[in-house]
Specification:
Length: about 150
Amino acid sequence: MAKLADEFVEALKRLERKGEVEAVLALFHEDAIVSNPILSGEGKGGDEPARFWRDYHASFDEITSEFRAVAEEAGTAFLEWESRGQIDGKPFRYGGVSVLEEKDGKITAFRTYFDPSQLPAVDRTTDDRSELDRAQEELAEQRAEGGYS
C-alpha cells in the first residue's frame, strides 16, 4: 500500500499542476467508490472516478496540496493534507484526511473528509457548473442564512 499511496500523491500533484487526470485514474479499480462531504452520496464505478477528479480539477482556479502524514494498515492508507489555492480569485486554505482502500494494487475506495465551510463561495451562474461548484454555492447560502457553520 505504501507504493500506491506514494503514487496517488504524485498523480494528484500532476493533476493539480497540469490537469493530468489520467495519472490519477490509472490508480483506480474499475468499480472504485469516490466520495467527499460536498458531493451528494458516493459515486461507484463506471465513470464516477473520472467525473469526480475532473470536477475536482475544474472547481479551482489553482490548488496545491501538501501531505503532512500518511499512515497505513491492512490495505488502507490515511493521508492527512492541507490544500491552498484560489476559487474565483478568492484565496483559500483547507485541510482534511483522505482514506484510500486498496485491493490488488488498485484503489477500490477513495473517501475524503474536510470542513466544507473552509472553502469560499463560488459565483458561477452557468448551468455547466460542476457538482462541487453547485454544492459550494449552496453551502455559502446556508452560511449566509446562519444554517451552516
